[in-house]
Structure formats: C-alpha cells, structure tokens
Amino acid sequence: MEGTFIRALQRTHLLQQMLSEITDHALADDSPRVRFSAVGANLAMEHWLAMTTLMESRRFASAIALIRLQYESLLRSVWCLHCAVDDQIETLSTAMSEQSQESAKRWPTATAMLEAIGTLRQTTALHASLCEFKDGSWTALNSFIHAGLHPLLRQAEGYPYELLLQTMRISNGLGLLTAMQKAVLTGRRDLQKIVLTRCESFTDCLPPRKEPCPRPPGQSV
Known about the structure:
The protein has helices at about 1-20, 30-55, 60-80, 85-90, 100-105, 110-120, 125-145, 150-155, 160-185, 190-200. It is mainly alpha-helical. It contains 10 helices and no strands. It has one domain (about 1-205).
C-alpha cells in the first residue's frame, strides 16, 4: 500500500504540472473582479501544491488541514467573479488598512458564498461539485483545523494509507476545479475542454465520480 501511496504522489505532481501548463495564459481582461478572482484561484493552487509537499514529508495533519484552505480559496475566487458586489471588489483594490479590514469582516462565510453561487445558472455544475465536497468533507476538515478528535486520534494511532489516498484524491479534485476556474478567467472556452480531455488519463488519482471528470461549468468572463 505504501507503494500505491508513493505512486499517487508522483501522479499528483504530473497532474499539477499538466494543469499549470494548460492554464498558463493571460487573463481575459485587467478588471479588478477578474484579477482578484485569479488571485483566489492561484491561492487555491498554492495550497494544493503545499498539501502535496506536506504529504511527501509525512506531515499528514497539516496536509489535510490545508484542504479546507484550498476549498475556501477556490470558493472565494468563484464568488469574486460572479457574486461579489462592486463595493466588495473595491475593498480588494485598496491598500490594507483598518477600514478595509473592517469592510472585509462583512464578507460572506463559506456557506453564504456557496448559496450565492447556487443561484446562478452558469455555475450549476461547479456548484454541485462544491456542494458534494462540502457535504462529504466539512466536518472532518473542521476537526483538523481546530485540533479536534480526528487529528488527535490520527496522530496517536497513525494514518491508514487508504485515508491518505482518499484525501489526496479529494485535494486533486479541488485542484481540477481550480484549473477549470483559471481556464474560465482566460476567456478561452477551448481551455475548459482541453483540461477535461487531458484529465481523462488521471482518473486513478482523482475522486471517483459518475463521470471521469467534472463537466465544464459553462462559465464565461
């Protein structure tokens, strides 16, 4: 089983490299809304890369906790692009100050952002994938974030390789969704199809689904 885990890490690196290369394009425009949506997506990618590094060094509790940050960064990216009002985008465009920090306190929670995304027709498929993740993983990830039962018992008893493989696939699934979001932000519709086509050979390290990969969300900038 350890060999399977090591191979999954290797495959994850290849997946990350492939998705980075495909989505390495200029943004559709230089508007604050698009730019900060891209910042959120890049932050999600950074957490994904860091999760893999921590898995390799066997810092499993920290690696799993990062998946919550990965998810919320992707969620914030989608919210910035489709749901944030102009005043909220303006807060992002100003220098860090007490006023901007106070304004940011009124930003929606993860649950509220997810609900707002769910009201949009163009994000139907993406919303379904985000809900699927939250329904299946939120309680355990909260436990890891707050040093609850899950991480304490795992640190004491060890991490089964089955759990680590499942966790890695979940994080990789979020990475794929993030790549789809980055493709949207380029304004090139063909990139979404390219991402999905290329990911068909990586189903061994992605979450099991009725379909090999998420459907294109049909978004546009």
